[in-house]
Amino acid sequence: MDRWYWCDSSLTFGEIVASTAKSIRLYDGDKKTTFEDGHLTLTNLRLLWRHESQSSSLGLHLGLVALVEEEPGGFTSSPKLILHLAMPSHTQPAGPVTTSHNSHIKLCFKQGGCSSFHQGLQKALTDQEWEKLTVQTTPTNHQTNKRPQGKTIHTGILGIERAIQAKQQQTNQNISRAFEDLKNLMDLAKDMVAISKSISSKMKERSGEVSADDTTQFRSYLLSLGIDDPVTRETHGSATTYHHNLAREIANALETPVKEAGGVMLLSEVYCRINRARGLQLLSPEDVMNACQVMKQSNQSIHLHTFESGVQVVQSVGLDQEKVMKDTVEALQRYETLGMSAGDLARECGLPLLLAQERLLQAETCAEAVRDESSQGLRFYPNLFFTRDAQ
After folding, report:
1. Within a domain: 233
2. Quick one: pLDDT at residue 63?
3. In the prediction, which pLDDT does 7 show?
4. How many domains does the chain have?
5. What would the mean pLDDT of 161-169 be, rounded to a whole number?
6. Are 133 and 21 part of one and the same domain?
7. What is the span of the domain harbouring residue 175?
8. Do 135 and 272 belong together in one domain?
9. Does any domain span residue 343?
10. Do 12 and 141 belong to one domain?
């Protein structure tokens, strides 16, 4: 507060009002002062703060402002601007405080407008009009606050350390609030699952009074909620039991999506889909892998399959391999002249690129395709040698 000085509210020569704000409280460093609910005026040369009950104003020359930071508001706090200041000259008029240990002040905006005022202040600091104007002073407004030529503005080590400490405190507060919000979200999710189960059981009891369209629509709402009671280690004991139950959960959740994808789904996509369905009860890649490995033992509708190249997928038990091969050969025949790359097959059949490549390699293994590897990449053609030999 030792950078502020008493003055009247009249503007000096060449001074222009740039922005105003109401209900502003002044801080000396991080401590509140008694200067609150005042009217703040930003000019091209100064900051002026005045309370309605006071005839004089507090002035702060913009030449002393070295750095401006914006501190966001919280649930119980208002947004603030932090002004890091240089030392005032010895000829500065008297102010409310003779000396201060703080090298920064804060402006608290109780009624909003912090961001817009910040923009105006930054523009004024960039323009540096006080360097271009020779401000004349009178005994009424004490004297000019023109910064001496050649004086370097700096905040000092103490000011920088305080700014870093303030940022760290604000970050810690934001993280704490984020975890509180996450806990509330988890509690809310549990309540929603309980409500969905209750409504679902009531609909089963009153199945004759609910139309088929309403039932279909409500079931779609329930599916969008994901898995209502996910398998966890805490509820299913040993690792073996846990992985078998987890395999059953994954198979039930992904049976339809796997069929819609052509009967095959990459293990990476399985991991993403099951975690999205489980919501907050996320699985590790290792748990998903172990669960997929025991699917075949527990007679699930889908099971893990590993290609010769090492690529692992989850595929439907009843997948017709002959039909898959037939579709691949038909696609190859459409590209008989130019040859087909993995990208071409992926676009033709709507497959992931990795699965498309595995289909072409499998067709080559079955003597249904031949390869042409050149500087332009790897392309496959129908095996005409095999066709002619068969004829």
Report:
1. no
2. 85
3. 85
4. 4
5. 74
6. yes
7. 155-225
8. no
9. yes
10. yes
pLDDT of residue 146: 44
Of residues 84 and 237, more confidently modeled: 84
Of 86 and 146, the one with more pLDDT: 86
- SS3 letters across the chain: CCCCEEECCCCCCCCCEEEEEEEEEEEECCEECCCCCEEEEEECCEEEEECCCCCCEEEEEHHHEEEEEEECCCCCCCCEEEEEECCCCCCCCCCCCCCCCCCEEEEEECCCCHHHHHHHHHHHHHHCHHHCCCCCCCCCCCCCCCCCCCCCCCCHHHHHHHHHHHHHHHHHHHHHHHHHHHHHHHHHHHHHHHHHHHHHHHHHHCHHHCCHHHHHHHHHHHHHCCCCCCCCCCCCCCHHHHHHHHHHHHHHHHHHHHHHCCCEEEHHHHHHHHHHHHCCCCCCHHHHHHHHHCCCCCCCCEEEEECCCCCEEEEECCCCHHHHHHHHHHHHHHCCCCCECHHHHHHHHCCCHHHHHHHHHHHHHCCCEEEEEECCEEEEEECHHHHHHHC
13 shares its domain with 128:
yes
Assess if residue 370 is contained within a domain: yes
pLDDT in tens, 321-367: 788 888 888 888 888 888 888 888 888 888 888 888 888 898 888 88
Residue 342 sits in a domain whose CATH number is: 1.10.10.10
What confidence tens digit (pLDDT) does each residue in 202-217 have?
666 665 555 555 555 5
